[in-house]
């Protein structure tokens, strides 16, 4: 996994502290200052093999022994330039040869200066066989001078840090760098106050850094890392504490009106609200009624009915004389929300029209691809306040749209929005006031994970779904088994024959141009991560290029099972009108199969669609796959989803199977967490805060997160501006800058 490392502001630059070679090695990881380097944890430790006598060693075995140098011989290599250095060492009983192949003369000199006859050494390495001399040897061993005391023995057996490496950087260089840096550990900034550390039984930072990089025992490494983990959690929680403190000082419009639109709307709803919808509705109403901005994360599975909850809150804003905005991640979704909301509101949305209701408001759609005239009219309604409800994409935030009186912003599908979006929304309120923010997500996250990553939001969870949904059954289809693939298309044909519709999702638009899935409105799918134990490499089975929308549509047209089916396409590169037409055709039942990219991932609502086929499913992220299958089984017809893959059975396939079997978004969130680790918990576009977690594991460290939260909130409550905690204030600033380099802090 690629590491992103920030540079801490105000910390000592490594270029001034370290030798050039060491400073350069660190710099190739983006580590440029002492504070960052001493928090750059080893990826693991090697615990040396127990000390052995040379008599016991076996070829192929990892060994370490205390020896002394008997003789040193240097000869030149035959086939290429350089020397072979052969050093015979003995433990007083047996001898073994240490062999070095060295291309550069200065390295020969360096080894010779350290391998003087009579010197005591600890040697570590893997025993090999020298067929030339017919004796065992160790090629390129690790060795260091040995001091013949009890401390010396303990030192020889200490765990050694193993840092990540890059080409041409030796482990030795990385170790030398941190060794050199530890001399200055006393000058590190220490974000966690001493009182907190001692109450939690944690080491100070200089102690911890020493134990992480120069441990004497394995226990040391744990104690050292415990500080770094706690510190990371603590700084994060201090950020959340400060944000909440700022909110508590910021005025917001209190949205307290109870009618008339809310009552009129409830009366005409075609269904009963579920108990959960009512309860969460009340909780949101209470929060937006306060005169300080609230930030709520509303999580509920796909199809659990979040939109209605949001709409009721937006009507409360309008009733209270303010506006509400609903932001969607894509134009397709924004248009759909506009359609649904206009429909649900009926004449309540037609203010100023002949057939509008007396208390009606206006619902306006604002997207990037609107025609100028239409757009001008919309903007006019937004700035004048005539539009009570505005629906748009997040482009709306960047384009300097001015609201007359924005009281509430609802963000749909939060994993596409970052903290910076939320912050930007905050500035859109009337006369120095901040609007309330409700973020909706269908990718729920477990409680401590939420604390660690969106700890500045109040999390409300919608657990039930309206009974109407027929649900989805998911199958994994390994395409090497031709009969399965045939069966899959056969099932699609059966659905079509029964009057239903089918989605087919591809990872790309074309098959020729690589990476064309990415357009501003359509992020490329996030691939499934390699299994946790894989060392960052590819899984090795991804042989074929993913299939594209256009070629797939052509291929399907030729499949005998699908003869006569009407096939449409939808992808992010189509002009806005074409996209809209494709959606309308699908909605109206004029096409049977819609072949699309992940434009349809979030929220698209076609109640008559009952089959979802995802091709090259291993290319999609866990939450994407869940979102995709949530597109079917939304109406009265049971849905069926196929996760199709050309991978041979193995890790990726069993991960797809796990996803297929997960009952709901909550079970899936756990799987997602396990697979990805906390790294990008809430998806790629979520704030950088969690993307850049370095030591913290939101599952393993749940308790630490709770403790850090308690402590950080207490520190911030007592000293909101952190005047007595400059190191903490500095760490917060660095963290935020690292997470969102482009966002200005307010
Ligand atoms: P999501 O939480 O995925 O955004 P939606 O809000 O889109 O879910 O709701 C899914 C579907 O369920 C919509 O067609 C919506 O009108 C319908 N719905 C919402 N609440 C109820 C309810 N209480 N009873 C019946 N249908 C409902
Ligand atoms: Mg939705």
Automatic annotation (TrEMBL):
Residue stretches making up the Helicase C-terminal domain: 527-679
InterPro entries: DEAD/DEAH_box_helicase_dom, Helicase_ATP-bd, Helicase_C-like, NA-bd_OB-fold, P-loop_NTPase, RecG/Mfd, RecG_dom3_C, RecG_wedge
GO molecular function: helicase activity
Database matches in PROSITE patterns: HELICASE_ATP_BIND_1 (PS51192), HELICASE_CTER (PS51194)
Superkingdom of this protein's organism: Bacteria
SUPFAM superfamilies recorded: Nucleic acid-binding proteins (SSF50249), P-loop containing nucleoside triphosphate hydrolases (SSF52540)
Residues annotated as domain Helicase ATP-binding: 287-462
Keyword line: ATP-binding, DNA damage, DNA repair, DNA-binding, Helicase, Hydrolase, Nucleotide-binding
A Pfam family reported for this protein in Swiss-Prot or TrEMBL: RecG_wedge
Keyword Plastid: no
Feature: compositional bias, Pro residues: 521-533
Gene3D superfamilies registered for this protein in UniProt: Nucleic acid-binding proteins (2.40.50.140), P-loop containing nucleotide triphosphate hydrolases (3.40.50.300)
Span list, region Disordered: 512-541
PANTHER family: ATP-DEPENDENT DNA HELICASE HOMOLOG RECG, CHLOROPLASTIC (PTHR47964)
Name of the featured protein: Probable DNA 3'-5' helicase RecG
Source organism of the structure: Brachybacterium tyrofermentans
The organism's taxonomic lineage, starting at the top: Bacteria, Bacillati, Actinomycetota, Actinomycetes, Micrococcales
């Amino acid at each position: 996994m690629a590491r992103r490392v920030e540079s801490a502001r105000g910390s000592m630059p490594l270029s001034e502290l370290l030798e050039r070679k060491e400073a350069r090695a660190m710099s190739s990881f983006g580590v440029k200052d002492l504070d960052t380097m001493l928090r750059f944890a080893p990826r693991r430790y090697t615990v040396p093999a127990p000390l052995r006598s040379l008599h016991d060693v076996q070829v192929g075995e990892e060994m370490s022994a205390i020896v002394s140098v008997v003789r040193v011989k240097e000869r030149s290599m035959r086939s290429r330039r350089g020397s072979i250095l052969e050093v015979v060492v003995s433990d007083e009983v047996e001898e073994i040869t240490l062999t070095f192949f060295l291309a550069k003369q200065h390295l020969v000199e360096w080894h010779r200066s350290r391998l003087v006859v009579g010197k005591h050494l600890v040697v570590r390495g893997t025993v090999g066989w020298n067929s030339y001399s017919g004796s065992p040897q160790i090629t390129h061993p690790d060795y260091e001078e040995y001091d013949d005391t009890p401390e010396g023995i303990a030192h020889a057996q200490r765990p050694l840090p193993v840092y990540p490496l890059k080409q041409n950087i030796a482990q030795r260089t990385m170790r030398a760098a941190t060794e050199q840096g530890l001399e200055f550990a006393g000058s590190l900034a220490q974000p966690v106050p001493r009182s907190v550390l001692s109450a939690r039984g944690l080491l100070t930072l200089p102690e911890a850094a020493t134990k992480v990089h120069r441990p004497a025992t394995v226990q040391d490494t744990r104690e050292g890392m415990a500080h770094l983990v706690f510190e990371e959690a603590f700084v994060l929680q201090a950020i959340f504490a400060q944000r909440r403190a700022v909110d508590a000082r910021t005025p917001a419009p209190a949205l307290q009106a109870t009618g008339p639109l809310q009552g009129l709307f409830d009366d005409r709803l075609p269904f009963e609200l579920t108990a959960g919808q009512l309860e969460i509705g009340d909780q949101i109403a209470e929060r937006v009624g306060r005169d300080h901005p609230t930030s709520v994360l509303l999580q509920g599975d796909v199809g659990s009915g979040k939109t209605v909850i949001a709409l009721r809150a937006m009507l409360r804003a309008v009733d209270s004389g303010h506006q509400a905005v609903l932001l969607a991640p894509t134009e397709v979704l924004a248009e759909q929300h506009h359609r649904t909301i206009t429909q649900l509101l009926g004449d309540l949305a037609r203010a100023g029209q002949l057939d509008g209701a007396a208390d009606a408001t206006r619902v306006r759609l604002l997207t990037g691809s609107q025609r100028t005239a239409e757009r001008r009219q919309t903007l006019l309604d937004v700035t004048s306040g005539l539009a009570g409800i505005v629906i748009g994409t997040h482009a709306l935030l960047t384009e300097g749209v001015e609201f007359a009186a924005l009281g509430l912003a609802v963000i749909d599908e939060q994993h596409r929005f970052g903290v910076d979006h939320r912050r930007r929304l905050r500035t859109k309120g009337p006369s120095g006031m901040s609007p309330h923010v409700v973020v909706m997500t269908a990718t729920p996250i477990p409680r401590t994970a939420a604390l660690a990553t969106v700890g500045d939001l109040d999390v409300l969870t919608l657990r039930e779904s309206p009974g109407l949904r027929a649900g989805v059954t998911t199958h994994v289809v390994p395409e090497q088994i031709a009969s399965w693939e045939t069966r899959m298309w056969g099932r699609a044909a059966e659905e079509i024959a029964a009057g239903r519709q089918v989605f087919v999702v591809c990872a790309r638009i074309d098959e020729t141009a690589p990476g064309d899935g990415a357009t501003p409105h359509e992020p490329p799918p996030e691939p499934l991560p390699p299994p946790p134990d894989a060392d960052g490499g590819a899984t090795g089975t991804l042989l074929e290029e993913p299939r594209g929308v256009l070629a797939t549509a052509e291929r399907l047209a030729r499949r005998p099972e699908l003869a006569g089916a009407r096939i449409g396409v939808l992808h992010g590169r189509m002009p806005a009108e074409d996209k809209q037409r494709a959606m309308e055709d699908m909605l109206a039942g004029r096409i049977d199969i819609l072949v699309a990219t992940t434009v349809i991932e979030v929220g698209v609502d076609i109640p008559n669609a009952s089959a979802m086929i995802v091709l090259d499913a291993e290319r999609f992220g866990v939450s994407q796959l869940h979102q995709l299958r949530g597109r079917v089984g939304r109406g009265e017809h049971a849905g069926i989803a196929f996760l199709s893959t050309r991978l041979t059975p193995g890790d990726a396939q069993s991960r797809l199977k796990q996803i297929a079997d997960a009952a709901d978004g909550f079970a899936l969130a756990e799987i997602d967490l396990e697979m990805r680790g906390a790294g990008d918990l809430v998806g790629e576009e979520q704030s950088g805060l969690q993307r850049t977690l370095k030591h913290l594991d939101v599952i393993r460290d749940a308790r630490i997160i709770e403790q850090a939260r308690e402590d950080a909130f207490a520190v911030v409550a007592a000293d909101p501006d952190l005047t007595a905690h400059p190191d903490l204030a500095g760490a917060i600033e660095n963290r935020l800058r690292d997470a969102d380099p482009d966002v200005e802090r307010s």
